[in-house]
Amino acid sequence: MRLVDILHRNLSKIAEPALLFPVIAVALLSLVWTATLELIRLKHADTEHVAAVSSRELLGTYEAQVVRALREIDQPLNLIKYWHESDPANRKLAELKDRGLLPPDLLFVVSIADRRGAIVDSTGASPEVNVAHRDYFRAQLERDAFFMGQPLRGSTGESTLQFSRRLTAPDGAFDGIAIVSVAASYFVSGYDGSRLGEHGVLGIIGTDGIIRVRRTGDAEFSGEAINYAGVVPGPEAVETDGTISTGSWDGVRRWTSARELYGFPVAVLVGLSVDEQLASAHRETLTYLWRAGIGSALILVLTGLLGRMSWQLAQSRSREGKIKLAHAERVEYLAYHDGLTGLPNRSLFSKLLGQSLSEAQRYNRQLAVAFLDLDRFKQINDTLGHEAGDQLLREVANRLKGCVRESDSVARLGGDEFVVLLPDLGDPKHAASVAQKILAVIAKPFTLIGHEFRVTVSIGISAYPQDGLDEQTLTKNADIAMYQAKAEGKNNFQFYSATLNANSLERLTLESSLRHALEHNEFRLRYQAKRDIDSGRITGMEALLRWEHPDLGLLAPMQFIPMAEESGLIVPIGRWVLETACSQNVAWQKAGAPPLNIAVNLTAGQFADERLLEDVRAALKSSGMSPHLLEFEISESVLIRDVEATLRILTGLKGLGIRIAIDDFGIGYSSLKTLQCFPLDTIKIDRSFIRSIAAEPENWELADAVITMGKNLSLTVVAQGVETGEQVQFLRAHACDELQGFYLNRPLPPEEFKELLLASANEITGFAKTLAAGSVTSTA
């Protein structure tokens, strides 16, 4: 089993791309080059064999040609010998020539030399008069045999060969020689360059080792001495294909074949140049090497590409694995930590609290849970933007971590809510100390977008085991205490108590009822008239929302609008108000009332709703009310929160023909330049200015400045919250345009307000006189 594991491990290593591809490349390269070299070797061997065989075949052909030529030469020599010996006194070569018994003069010269070597008869011009000193003459002195003399070079540079036979007198004595002279080139004229090449050799060698004639290419040579025994194999030698040897006369390596002629004292020689014969093989070798090189390059490139792709794939897989691991770690981290602050989130805090409760029960310890909520965070977030809000939350998180022990835990539950877990609490007073420290640290200024801002925090504390024995109870009670801290003016901490729980239950009950108020048709609209300050004519009305709670009775907006804003219910509630107000205005007109402007309040939540324009169009279309009769009242603080977004929304509303009014004007401290940016129609002076006119005379100047600003902007100025005749006189003296308040009439239900509208035409003159006298009393 261990051996199997070792083999498996080794195979796994070999299968790795980093090792597998080089091994494959080496194997393929070895195969390519082994095959190429073997092919080259076989090609060379085949070429060598063909050349050697060709050399032997050429030798046989050349041998036959030379033998035939020699026999043609020996035949006239024998004829002359016979003819001379039969009648030596009267025989002349001319007679034999006339009979056609001698070879043609064009190639051969036939001569006879006497016993002293003198040429006594010839068929042509003989280059020598006496040949007694020549080898072919002296050789016949000793014996009677066919003999080939050494080549003679003539005046033209061409060599001739002399062949001789002995002439014998009747008494058997030497009587001269018969000679046949022929050009040496005659024996090599059959040189075929297509077969022998430019450096092949064709030649005749005498048994004395003297080359009678040799031709290489177009050049002919004679008279060279060679080692006859080294070139021409003996009669006992076994004939083989040509062997490679180097010519002693020119240093060229050739496949050489030589053979001594039977019956003649000469040998024939044929040679093929090794370089020429192997030239095609060399060219093919280069082709094979070139192809093998290209194949090797392709193998290396392909292996490199595959290796790189494999490496990239491995790297990609490695990165993917790391990414997956990092992602898993990130997912796990995000599952238990807040992505913005890095603090533990609700899930991790729940685990920490559960673990701390188990330890507290086991070791009889106390612990505390503190819920924290930033005061006015929404205002900062909406005014400065979410980026500044996120920066604030991060800095708050850092400050909170600096206020607790290492054993304590700080978590973010969401939004601007934080929670602090104080385990192993020796004394509940310690929780109060931590809370005081947190209040002090958070109260220090924060630098956001280059400016200093201050926020506060409200803290609610519940303790184990006094305020709960389980996680859910402790967190709920800490939350109740935190809301009580906000109710106490914020920027403080509160411990949980039973009384707080009762108040919290009441708030929760009210919030729960609010969610069903629309379904149960519990909302009501009241209408309050706006009157012209000079004529007393009703110029319009404002729709005011009330909640007719089944248990608590009629509730004012301030008792439930903040809850509606927090829960997001303000959008459907506002949509209902808009549709109801428009429909009611049309119904009054159909009943005979004049078409008057009706104002509807828009809260911050409604103003930020993306479907606001769609809802307005739908309400106008369903009710049939003219858009110019609709006016939206928007608080000054909402308008200046985001000038660009505000301008875009107001432009869209104005495009529908709707009027825009600033509600509670004067407390937002907006500048004249800022107001000039918006397409406004009306400003409504905040009731705090109107209320303080009589009590604080110095506020008259401020109210007058507000009215003047509105006039300078060519806007209709409406004073709301008018409750006394003195206020009416002041506003009329300072050219305020319209009045609204309890002094004129309280908000009325639809039927009562219809009667007011129908009766107002008859009361205008008298009402105007009463306004002038400043003694109007409430009509409702």
Labels describing this entry:
780 residues, six-stranded antiparallel β-sheet, 25 helices, alpha+beta
Task: Explain what this protein looks like in three dimensions.
The protein has 780 residues and is α+β, with helices and mostly antiparallel strands. Helices cover 49% and strands 22% of the residues. The protein has 25 helices and 28 strands. Strands 20-21-23-24-25-26-27-28 form an 8-stranded mixed β-barrel, surrounded by 5 helices. Helix 2 (17-86) runs antiparallel to helix 8, helix 10 crosses helix 11 (386-401) and helix 13 (471-487) crosses helix 14 (498-517). 32% of the residues are buried.
Strand order of the largest sheet: 20-21-23-24-25-26-27-28
- C-alpha Rg (nearest Å): 66 Å
Classification by helices and strands: alpha+beta
Separate helix tally:
25
User: Quick one: overall form?
Assistant: rod-shaped
| Counted beta strands | 28
Q: The biggest beta sheet, please?
A: 8 strands, mixed, barrel
- Which stretches of 5+ consecutive residues score pLDDT under 50? 775-780
Helix content: 40-55%
Intertermini distance: 104 Å
Mean pLDDT: 82
Strand content: 15-25%
